[in-house]
Design goal:
The complex is a heterodimer. Chain A has ten helices and four strands, in the order ααααααααβαββαβ. Chain A has helices at 11-24, 29-41, 43-61, 70-84, 90-99, 102-106, 108-121, 131-134, 154-164, 187-196, and strands at residues 144-148, 167-170, 177-181, 200-205. In chain A, strands 2-3-1-4 form a four-stranded antiparallel β-sheet, with helices on both faces. In chain A, α1 packs parallel to α3 (43-61), α5 runs antiparallel to α7 (108-121) and α9 runs antiparallel to α10. The longest helix of chain A is centred in the first third of the chain and has 19 residues, at 43-61. By secondary structure, chain B is mostly helical. Chain B folds into two domains: 7-98, RNA polymerase sigma factor, region 2, helix turn helix motif (Rna Polymerase Sigma Factor, Chain: A, Orthogonal Bundle), CATH 1.10.1740.10; 119-192, Arc Repressor Mutant, subunit A. Chain B has helices at 7-24, 28-49, 53-70, 80-98, 119-137, 140-151, 156-163, 167-184, 189-192. The chains are: A alpha+beta, B mainly alpha. The interface between A and B is large, with 48 and 58 residues.
């Protein structure tokens, strides 16, 4: 939307146009030299320089509140990849189906018992099967599952994960289970830390090999 | 001069380039990191362009989905930020065609806080409100150039790539936008310098 009625013909117009970028430093070397030459002889442009600085300060202070939308976007990534994957192996699919059933949440004890047993059943699963957990080919595979108490705050979850050196690679499911990745060598320690956390209802390695 | 183009800025672009290469290999953790780096900046940019909060989220997600799905096409001929902002700009434009700006709440401009405030704060708030209103009256094309220059600290060449127009057009848009903003600033020059 260039304005045909206005063209930066003279050195003054050229310099004035470039002032915002001269102030931010995002300017070509030749243009900077041109602006500096002009500033030596133009009081108006020197005054405009102060205006530009004020405008930049004002705009940089206008930062809107930003809410974290990663979980929302993460949900969108799941769908097409899941559709493209072959059907998961049966034992794993059963575990997953159970974990994603809301009723499981109400049966915390039964769930706990099941997952411990299922953890053993998962021994036979090969690594690629875990991709289904996150529904994407995640290189940092899930090797730990955790269920937090429903009243746990986001800050407490973050702290617990940070202490255990864990990152979330899947979930939450309808039963609020998260799939985590921790450094394999430190997994035993991570599991112990999570299990010692009062907010953790369940923390279990899910490939059955705790090193 | 502020924000000079430093070695650190170049290193950051290199790091982001490596992150995009990992995203191209569908590494979710790399994508999450990239998302967290760009979400505040893109939200800010899209808030400048679009006036419907739900549309901002939608366009942000659409933008990042394109990044996720087409990262393999990023060849590094431009900076990662240029590539990502250009996607956001195109997505915002398409969204605007579907959902034009809502009609402004007429009370918006007149609603004032009843809390007492020191003179300086009142003055600052007046300046802030005047600029916000002046920005609202600019076209989306002009708002984009102002925001990319003043807030995101981008140069005219990078902005020209993002909004897909000649460099001279960027300069012209900025010139007109600044003139409108300055006209909107209350009081005399000496008041707010």
């Amino acid at each position: 939307m260039a304005d045909p009625k206005r063209s930066a013909a003279g050195p003054h117009d050229e310099a004035e146009e470039l002032l915002p970028w001269y102030v931010t430093g995002q300017i070509d070397r030749a243009d900077r030299a041109r602006v500096e030459r002009h500033l030596l002889s133009c009081g108006d442009c020197r005054e405009q320089l102060a205006v530009e600085r004020r405008l930049i300060d004002e705009f940089q202070a206008m930062t809107p509140e930003v809410e974290s939308g990663w979980a929302r976007l993460r949900g969108r990534i799941d769908m097409p990849v899941r559709a493209a994957l072959p059907p998961p192996r049966q034992p794993f699919a059963e575990l997953w189906a159970l974990l994603t059933r809301p009723a499981v949440l109400a049966l915390a004890v039964a769930q706990l018992a099941f997952v411990v047993i299922a953890g053993g059943a998962l021994l036979s699963l090969s690594r690629p099967a875990y991709h289904v957990l996150g529904s994407v080919p995640v290189p940092a595979d899930a090797n730990l599952i955790v269920i937090f108490d429903p009243h746990t705050t986001e800050g407490e979850i973050r702290h617990a994960l940070g202490s255990a050196g864990a990152s979330i690679v899947g979930g939450p499911t309808a039963a609020d289970a998260y799939l985590l990745h921790v450094a394999p060598a430190a997994r035993q320690n991570s599991v112990a830390k999570l299990q010692a956390d009062d907010n953790v209802q369940l923390a279990q390695p899910i490939d059955g090999v705790v090193r | 001069m502020r924000r000079p183009r430093t070695e650190a800025a170049r290193a950051s672009a290199r790091d982001e380039g490596e992150l995009i290469a990992r995203v191209a290999r569908q590494e979710l953790q790399a994508f999450e990191r990239l998302y967290r780096m760009y979400q505040p900046r893109l939200t800010r940019f899209l808030t400048t362009l679009l006036k419907r909060p739900q549309l901002i989220e939608e366009v942000l997600d659409d933008t990042m989905m394109v990044v996720w799905q087409t990262a393999a096409n990023f060849r590094g001929s431009s900076k990662p930020s240029t590539w990502i902002f250009a996607i956001a700009y195109r997505k915002a434009y398409k969204a605007k065609l579907r959902w034009p700006d809502p009609v402004e709440d007429p009370e918006n401009d007149t609603r004032v806080s009843t809390e007492p405030a020191p003179d300086e704060e009142v003055h600052h708030r007046r300046l802030h409100d005047s600029l916000v209103q002046a920005m609202d009256r600019l076209s989306p094309d002009h708002r984009a150039v102002v925001d990319l220059t003043y807030f995101h600290g981008m140069g005219y060449r990078e902005i020209a790539e993002i909004v897909d127009c000649p460099v001279d057009t960027v300069k012209t848009r900025m010139f007109h936008a600044r003139r409108r903003l300055k006209q909107a600033m209350p009081g005399s020059l000496a008041d707010w310098l």
